[in-house]
C-alpha cells in the first residue's frame, strides 16, 4: 500500500478494525490506537544510499565558515576543513554531495577556483550577494568529499557557460593521461584523477539557470550531454542529471522528457516546503503555532503526490524506469530571522523540521523504484541544515538526528507498509495519524520509521510483520518538550535521540507507544 492511500483510511473503519480489542478511542482522548502491518514478504526496490545525499552551495556561510575555515584558522581543522563538522558528517555517512549550486552553478567558472589560492579572482556572487573569494574550489570540494567518504555530484554551468568549459572541467577532474589539462591538475597538487559520479547539466533552467522554456532547455541539455566524456583510467559512467521541474510544474517534465529522455540518466525535481506555501510570506522558523505546524507537515507530505505525478509522466517516455528521478533540492524554507544580520538563507531548525525530514524520507523509501538520489538543502548553515556553526561553536540540528537515526535504511530493501490510524486534524487540515516506511537490511533486520505528528496525543501502536516474525525489537526516539523546540549553541541537546522503551509482544503482535510529536526508528530481528 502506497503512503498516499493512507489518507483514505477513516477513523470509523479503524474503530471497527480494532473493535475486537476493545481499544478504539476517539480523537479527543490523549491516546489513540493505530495499527501497522509491514509486509516483510513483499520486498520492493532497494533504497539507494544516495537518497540520503546533501547539497552544499557557495552561499552565505554554507561553505565559507560552515565547512571551510582554511589551514591558518584558530578553529580546529583538517587541512582547512572544520574538524567538528567533518566528524559529524562522517558519523552519518553522507553518501553524496552536490556542489557548487544551485543557482550559483550557472554563474560559476571552474577556473576561478583552481591554482594558488592567493591568486584566485574575487567575483561578485550574483545569486546570493557578497563576494566569492574562490578559496573553496575544485580541489577543496573533491578532497572534502573524499575526506568524508561521499560521492560527488558536480553542477555545471549551462546558463552562462559552454559545452567546452564543461568538458575541460571534466577532463581536469578525471583525466589520467598526459593532456595539458591533466598536467595542470597535477601541477596544482593532485596526481590521481578524481571520480565524478553525477553531473548536473544546468540548475533550475526554468528560473535562475536562464529562464528557459522546456523545449529550449531540452535542446541545450542534448548538446551538453553529448560532450560528457569522463576520461580516467577506469572510466566509470557519469550519471547525467537534467534540470527538472519545480514542485508541480508537470509541463516542464513533459517537455523535457518528451524531447530528451534517451540522453537523460537522471531527472532532478526540486520541492521546498513552506508553511503556508507562499513565497512572499514563508513564515518563521521558530515562532509558530499549531496551524503552521500542521500546514508544514501537510506541505511535506505533498512530496508523495509530486513524485507520483512526475513518475507517471516519466513512465510514458521511460517505461522501464532507466531514468532515475532525483530530488536534488528539498527541505523547509522559512523567512530570515527578523532583526538578525544572518548570512543568506540561514535559518534555525526545530522539532518541526525533524518531522518533515522523517516524513520526506519515508516517502522516498516508498518511491525507491524511481527515486534514486535526493539532496537535502542544505548541509551547513543554509535552509534545512544538518549543522549550524558560529565561529568556534557547532550544533547538530534536529534534522541531523533524523538523518542519523535513518542511516539504517541506506541500501535496505523497501517493504510495503499498511497503516490504519485516525487522521491528526487541526482546523481543516488533515494528516495521517501515523506516517511510516520500512526496509530490510542486508543482515535481515527489518527497520521501521514512524512519525506521530500530533502535538499532544500518544499513539498506541499495534505492529505486525506479515510473512515473518520478530523475536526482539529495539528503537530510538526523537522528541522534545514543544513543537518549537530547538537546539542552540547554549543548549545543544534539547532535541536529541534516546532509546525507546516499553515495547511488548503477544501472539506475534508488538505493542508500543509513540509519544506526541515524535520520530521513531525500530529495529526488528
Ligand atoms: O537552495 C537554495 C536555492 O534554491 C538554490 O540555489 C536554487 O537552485 C533554489 O532555488
Task: Please describe what this structure looks like.
This protein folds into two domains: 6-45 and 415-524, Golgi alpha-mannosidase II (Immunoglobulin-like, Sandwich), CATH 2.60.40.1180; 49-411, Glycosidases (TIM Barrel, Alpha-Beta Barrel), CATH 3.20.20. Helix content is 23%, strand content 25%. The protein is built from ten helices and 27 strands. The strands form seven sheets. An eight-stranded parallel beta barrel has the order 2-5-8-9-10-11-12-13, surrounded by five helices. Helix 7 links the parallel strand 10 and strand 11 (266-273). It is globular, with a radius of gyration of 23 Å. The protein binds alpha-L-arabinofuranose. Residues 57, 101-103, 203-204, 329, 377-378, 383 line the site of alpha-L-arabinofuranose.
Query: Rg, please?
Result: 23 Å
- The overall pLDDT average reads 93
Domain count: the total is: 2
Ligands in the model, by name, code or SMILES, are: alpha-L-arabinofuranose
Strand portion: 25-35%
Principal-axes geometry comes out as globular
Number of helices: 10
